[in-house]
Amino acid sequence: MMKLLIDTNVIIDYLGDRAPFAGQTEQLIEICQQGKADGVLTASAVTDIYYVLHKTIDHQKIIDSLKVLFSVLNIAEVEKNDLLRAMEPDLTKSGTPGCFQEFK
After folding, report:
1. Over the stretch 54-101, which tens digit does the pLDDT of each residue have?
2. Which residues contact 62 (CB under 8 A, 6 or more apart)?
């Protein structure tokens, strides 16, 4: 199954209902929900999403929305060794850090 690393801004646009991107993100999430792809966020993306959205959206609404997303999307596990491997130029493909080549 294809794994999709979903960018922080994509989720911010979706949860913030920012046109025209929210609709496109909804389609992406539906693909993940249907099991056609495995959508993945990084843990740091989640904290960034909360930080940006809490300025305009109620705390509990953000938490509830993230919980719903967590039922569809996974969180990438990145450990210190993954980051160290990503710093090695020979372990990258097309500019993609090694820690994102294979999700755990």
Report:
1. 999 999 999 999 999 999 999 988 888 877 877 776 544 544 444 445
2. 15, 49, 50, 53, 54
- Which CATH class name applies to 2-77? alpha beta
For residues 31-36, average pLDDT: 95
Residues 6+ apart with CB under 8 A from 75: 40, 41, 42, 43, 46
Measure the CA angle with vertex 91, ends 87 and 96; round to 5°.
75
pLDDT at position 9 is 95
Task: Outline where 1-104 has alpha helix (H).
Answer: 8-15, 21-33, 43-53, 59-70, 80-86
Q: Could you state, in order of their start, the residue ranges of all structural domains in the chain?
A: 2-77
Residues making up the chain, counted from first to last: 104
Phi and psi dihedrals of 36, rounded to 5? -85, -20
| Three-class SS state of 44 | helix
pLDDT, residue 98, reads 46
